[in-house]
Amino acid sequence: MRLRLATIDDAEAVAGIYNHEVLTSTAVSDIEPRTLEAQRAWIAERSGAHAVVVAELVDSDVAGFGSLSRYKDRPAYATTVESSVYVAANHRGRGVGAAIIDELISVARTHGFHTIIARIEASNTASIALHTQAGFEPIGTEREVGRKFGRWLNMCSLQKML
Ligand SMILES: CC(C)(COP(=O)(O)OP(=O)(O)OC[C@H]1O[C@@H](n2cnc3c(N)ncnc32)[C@H](O)[C@@H]1OP(=O)(O)O)[C@@H](O)C(=O)NCCC(=O)NCCS
Q1: This model's pTM is above 0.70
Q2: How far away, in angstroms, is 121 Cα from ligand 1 center?
């Protein structure tokens, strides 16, 4: 497995992984699948410090991706990033997610960010365990701030100081 920065050409693979979660889980709060055009624009907006990383297998298959996005638009928050990580359902449980998180932490450190926040739906035990293992600590839960598939969603925030 190789970790590398995403290019626009990864948009189809990234959208495939992301849209699976849109349609089947509460791991993402989107309800409509992302179009290829929107996915291309999303990758294009993230280069340099706000990066998208993909995990590529030896057969060039993209097994997962992660990103560092602006935490908030206002300038005082510029030293904080928000992370996300998604692994294709058929490649889970083999260390891909952990490798992506470690790479995002490394990229964030390289670019001088001070801290990373991950916002995770409270029932997503896999993601909470993954982030905890990577050194993130819980900092609070927003209750019933989202709604999908007919149920309320609580959002946990986890934070890692860099
Ligand atoms: C969460 C997710 C990224 C984990 O990726 P993964 O490649 O399967 O995870 P890894 O194999 O690298 O596992 C690393 C650690 O995460 C935790 N973990 C992963 N899957 C888990 C599961 N199903 N249940 C509990 N813990 C789990 C474990 O602590 C694991 O360490 P271990 O193998 O030493 O026990 C993946 O399940 C996923 O993409 N889920 C859907 C999208 C999503 O929830 N993204 C996060 C949005 S906040």
Answers
A1: yes
A2: 14
Are the C-beta atoms of 15 and 1 separated by less than 8 Å? no
Q: Is the CB of 129 under 6 A from ligand 1?
A: yes
Distance CA 2, CA 73 (A): 32
Atom of ligand 1 nearest to the CA of 94: 11
Tell me the residue type at 94.
Answer: R
CB 117 within 8 A of CB 158: yes
Q: For atom 17 of ligand 1, which residue has the closest CA? A: 130
Task: Give per-residue pLDDT as tens, 79-110.
Answer: 999 999 999 999 999 999 999 999 999 999 99
| Domains by residue range for the chain, with CATH | 2-161 (3.40.630.30)
Which residue puts its alpha carbon closest to atom 25 of ligand 1? Answer: 126
Q: Give residue-wise pLDDT tens across range 35-76.
A: 999 999 999 999 889 999 999 998 879 999 999 999 999 999
Q: Is 67 in the pocket of ligand 1 (CB under 6 A)?
A: no
